[in-house]
TrEMBL record:
HAMAP family: DapA (MF_00418). GO terms for cellular component: cytosol. The active site is at Y134 (proton donor/acceptor), K162 (schiff-base intermediate with substrate). This is 4-hydroxy-tetrahydrodipicolinate synthase. It is an enzyme of class 4 (lyase). The lineage of its organism: Bacteria, Bacillati, Bacillota, Bacilli, Bacillales. Homotetramer; dimer of dimers. NCBIfam families: dapA (TIGR00674). Pathway: Amino-acid biosynthesis; L-lysine biosynthesis via DAP pathway; (S)-tetrahydrodipicolinate from L-aspartate: step 3/4. Belongs to the DapA family. GO terms for molecular function: 4-hydroxy-tetrahydrodipicolinate synthase activity. It comes from Halolactibacillus halophilus. Its main location: cytoplasm.
Length: 290
């Protein structure tokens, strides 16, 4: 499957009643597609999936798939540390019509490499849609090692990985040793350019809420051989990326979107709103994109 290059891990808008705000979801989707986003990841961790009920996830995915209406791929974050639960959610997402599912490494229960292999294999084999793995040990404690990724790449519908280990040696070997049609996406906004240089495909991004066009231009510049131009773009947006992760995600990006004129609403507990000092810092670094 061609996921495209700049995929946005989309926030979930909430209203004052702490319900999903579907009017704002429409505005957000249109804004993202007008500003460099080529694919949407819905109900992922940036979408505050730990605080969404099973029913909310299904309703939101149904809405997003219908509203996007085939304009770009929609990828559902259906991974968890409960294999049976992830199978059910993945199957339901497939019925809704998502183009793919994303499966995060199981958090908290710390499975072995073999346990993770069996976990991902079981979920992938329960659906027909393409599967993207998500390797993020900073959030989940465990990480997929090279041999496990290579074994999983042999499963017919496991076709990509979002790599957020920050380990460029590992990423390089994954790109080198997986089949040519296996895609590696940066899961770290600040590592997009190095991963492209290693042969990566693109990015699953949070910062693309604010700098999606710039990320798109960076990729196009790099691929057309304008490496100096690509480096300059990376350097220009680096402070923006750092500021958007200066507080627990997606707190800062929701604030930045509100300053841009959108209304993504609050973050759900246990996350809390930015302090005045934190807002000032985001304004200083991101304000030129408002």
């Amino acid at each position: 499957m061609d996921f495209n290059q700049v995929l946005t891990a989309m926030v979930t808008p909430f209203n004052d009643q702490d319900e999903i705000n579907y009017d704002e979801t429409e505005r957000l989707i249109d804004y993202l597609l007008d500003n460099g986003t080529e694919g949407i990841v819905a109900v992922g961790t940036t979408g505050e999936s730990p605080t969404l009920s099973h029913e909310e996830k299904l309703e939101f995915l149904t809405f997003v798939v219908a509203y996007v209406n085939g304009r770009v791929p929609v990828i559902a974050g259906t991974g968890s540390n409960n294999t049976k639960q992830s199978i059910v959610l993945s199957q339901e997402a497939e019925k809704i019509g998502v183009d793919s599912v994303m499966l995060v490494t199981p958090y908290y229960n710390k499975p072995s490499q073999e346990g993770m292999y069996q976990h991902f294999k079981a979920i992938a084999e329960s659906v027909k849609v393409p599967v993207m793995l998500y390797n993020i040990p900073g959030r989940t404690v465990v990480r997929l090692e090279l041999d496990t990724v290579l074994r999983l790449a042999e499963v017919d519908n496991i076709v990509a990985i979002k790599e957020a280990t920050g380990d460029l040696d590992l990423i390089s070997q994954i790109i080198k040793e997986t089949p040519d049609d296996f895609s590696v996406y940066s899961g770290d906004d600040n590592l997009l350019l190095p991963i492209l240089a290693l042969g990566g495909t693109g990015i699953v991004s949070v910062a693309s809420h604010m700098v999606g066009n710039e990320m798109n231009q960076m990729i196009q510049s790099f691929k057309s051989g304008k490496h100096t131009e690509a480096v300059k773009i990376q350097q220009d947006i680096a402070p923006v990326i750092k500021a958007l992760f200066s507080a627990p995600n997606p707190t800062a990006v929701k604030y930045a979107l509100s300053m841009k004129g959108l209304n993504p609403g609050h973050v759900r507990l246990p996350l809390i709103a930015l302090s005045a000092c934190e807002k000032s810092h985001v304004d200083d670094k991101v304000g030129r994109y408002y």
